[in-house]
Design brief:
This protein is α+β, with helices and mostly antiparallel strands. It has three helices and five strands. A three-stranded antiparallel beta sheet has the order 1-2-5. A hairpin with a 4-residue loop joins strand 3 and strand 4. It starts with a helix and ends in a 12-residue tail after the last helix. The relative contact order is 0.12. The model has no long low-confidence stretch (mean pLDDT about 90).
Length: about 100
């Protein structure tokens, strides 16, 4: 599902015009992005948490040059789904179904 799909679905379900929904979705994402850039986590009860994770310094390898490289400590954005959200996905997505990537 893409951002455009989300906008279309919300617009259809609420009756709000697509431009207003798109502006709201963009503002929501911008707020989350700005909070995380400032090092703040975002908690959405029943959905999940957008967290800033610290990656420790480590040694990497450049295979083509056969050298080691020090990868400095850094921070990355991550998402952790809530327990209720994770449980709902586990119950409703069939284990036998292959996971499909949207190639649209």
């Amino acid at each position: 599902m893409t951002k455009a799909d989300i906008v279309n679905e919300i617009s259809e379900k609420t009756g709000i015009e697509k431009m207003a929904v798109q502006a709201t979705v963009e503002a929501f994402m911008k707020t989350i992005r700005n909070s995380m850039v400032e090092g703040k986590n975002v908690y959405l009860r029943g959905f999940g948490t957008f967290v800033v994770k610290r990656r420790a310094e480590k040694i990497g390898r450049n295979i083509s040059k056969n050298t080691t490289v020090v990868i400095p400590a850094h921070y990355i954005p991550a998402f952790k789904a809530s327990k209720t959200f994770s449980d709902r996905v586990k119950r409703n997505v069939k284990a036998a179904e292959p996971i499909q990537k949207n190639m649209d």
